[in-house]
Amino acid sequence: MFTLFFSFLGTLRSCFQTRAALQLEILALRHQINVLRRAQRGRVRLTRVDRLLWTWLLHLWSGWRSALIIVKPETVIAWHRRGFRLFWAWKSRQDKPGRPEMSREVRDLIRKMSLANPLWGAPRIHGELLKLGIEVSQATVAKYMARQRKPPSQTWLTFLNNHVRSLVSTDFFVVPTVSFRVLFVFVVLAHHRRRVIHFNVIAHPTSEWTAQQIAEAFPWDTAPRYVLHDRDSVYGDIFRQRVRGMAIREILTAPRSPWQSPYVERLIGSVRRECLDHLIVLNESSLRRTLKSYFDYYHWARTHLSLEKDAPETRPVQPPQLGSVVELPEVGGLHHRYERHHRYERRAA
């Protein structure tokens, strides 16, 4: 009884349907029958043509849901959205506005720099590229760098801006040797241009030795107005008398407050991370040679964030017209300097 009633309703509905809607319904039903016929082991597999057909029916026929059996209506809507994304991706694949693509030569150079200098980050490589006359953004450099396992180095502490041209910092740091001895390195750093004025190595520092080092660092009338250091007992009476005799005013940091002398602390951290942490020191003479090599690289080649990606001894920009880029080893190959094909002659310090 009910079967005959529903069959009658179906016949009555088909009479009122338009011819086009009827043809679309027949197409949809026949297509599903063909899909079920080619099903293997009871599993229905739909091809791209099947999805495209139902996406097309979704646009042309408002009653497409009534004839859909093999999948859910939400699946067809998802196919339509995917097709929408693919269509606009295809339409905007060419002649789209934006930044010009980076040349392969520059990309390879960035990757080569990052692999040859694993201690460098994007700011350092960006500074080298600027010195080579290659204008790129730092974000672009970070994009094309080879990924390193180690995290990037820490950022600067708070800067001491006051009296930057007339202030120097002094500090000691220790270096172990291969025979388990401990050597002390004394450094004198000028805040302006971050130049290392003087350094020396000793096994047992005294106040007399430290006073002699400050005198050797500033001969004649080259002494600064202020010297910043911590409250170590090595800066004893003899050191204070020598400093007063040179018309230098001492500025002492608070106890256990290395952040109050950030410039020299940053320098010591750079020396360790970029040099001493990667080799074994034999004795005092070998440590002096190593530090001399590093400070030579530090002054003439290494770019600094605080100096607007320049070196303490200003490096001229070499435009691409000078030739191809060559790689020059520094600090025994631990770092490299990049210049155009002609060799850049350093000026006498």
Strand percentage, roughly? Answer: 5-15%
Low-confidence stretches: 152-159, 344-349
Widest sheet: strand ordering: 3-2-1-4-5
Q: Give the biggest sheet.
A: 5 strands, mixed
- The assigned structural class equals alpha/beta
Helical coverage, percent range: 40-55%
What is the CA-atom radius of gyration, in angstroms? 37 Å
Q: At the third CATH level, what is the topology name of the largest domain?
A: Nucleotidyltransferase, domain 5
Secondary structure layout plus pairing:
Layout: H1 2-16, H2 19-37, H3 48-60, H4 73-91, H5 104-116, H6 122-131, H7 138-144, E1 167-176, E2 182-190, E3 195-202, H8 207-217, E4 226-229, H9 237-245, E5 249-252, H10 262-274, H11 284-300, E6 325-330, E7 335-340
Parallel strand pairs: 1-4, 4-5
Antiparallel strand pairs: 1-2, 2-3, 6-7
Helix pairs in contact: 3-4, 6-7, 8-9
